[in-house]
Task: inverse folding
């Protein structure tokens, strides 16, 4: 029998700094909830809205795998490795912070906000040489299917990180149903509903809800409304 944990959208931490409005699925910064520290190696899932021309100044990271998935607008990234890049919807960015990096992220545009998911994953190797990678996806490849966007393997579809995780994005027509089969035994899946309404393993979910599922090897999925968008994050449940 599988185990589940449901995080409704309205139960997330809410940090409104004016220039930044961030919803925290797990404890982050001033939001501290001992029951919401992580899901397996998934440590941070922030749903960020950044006002026009604003952003995060230069700040450090180390020994964390950091993934950014833009949902709307253009996000300009600069880092201590010399990268100056704009990422937008359809792109996926990863950084292995390793021994230490600094970076900044700003809304490139002065006339519209930027929305993106900021995700942190505990690595399975520490003190690696910092690295950066980014890809532009073919968004049509996720129509009524799960498009792999991240894995542990450099030669597999999507970007890669130092951890046994697989991320998939999907966009589905109303009433479309399918299954997701786990890539690795013992992993769990955290499903985040980007848009619309879906049902996962009998649990009805709405926009920005999250559902963690583990101790199973397969998940049933159905879209309850048109253009339902979802992110599946398959992760190890044990944090070493």
Result:
């Amino acid at each position: 029998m599988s185990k589940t944990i449901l995080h409704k959208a309205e139960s997330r931490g809410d940090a409104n700094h004016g220039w930044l409005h961030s919803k925290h699925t797990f404890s982050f910064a001033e939001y501290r909830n001992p029951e919401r520290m992580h899901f397996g190696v998934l440590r941070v899932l922030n749903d960020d809205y950044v006002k026009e021309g604003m952003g995060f100044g230069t700040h450090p990271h180390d020994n964390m795998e950091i993934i950014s998935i833009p949902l709307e607008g253009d996000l300009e990234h600069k880092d201590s490795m010399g990268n100056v890049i704009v990422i937008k919807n359809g792109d996926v960015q990863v950084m292995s912070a390793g021994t230490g990096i600094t970076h900044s992220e700003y809304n490139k545009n002065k006339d519209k906000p930027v929305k993106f998911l900021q995700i942190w994953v505990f690595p399975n190797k520490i003190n690696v040489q910092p690295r950066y990678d980014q890809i532009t996806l073919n968004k049509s490849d996720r129509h009524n299917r799960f498009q792999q966007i991240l894995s542990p393997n450099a030669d597999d579809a999507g970007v890669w990180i130092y951890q046994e995780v697989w991320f998939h994005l999907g966009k589905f027509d109303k009433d479309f149903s399918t299954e997701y089969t786990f890539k690795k035994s013992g992993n769990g899946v955290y499903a985040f509903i980007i848009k619309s309404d879906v049902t996962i393993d009998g649990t009805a979910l709405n926009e920005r809800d999250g559902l963690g599922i583990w101790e199973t090897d397969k998940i049933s999925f159905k879209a309850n409304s048109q253009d339902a968008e979802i992110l599946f994050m398959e992760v190890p449940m044990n944090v070493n």
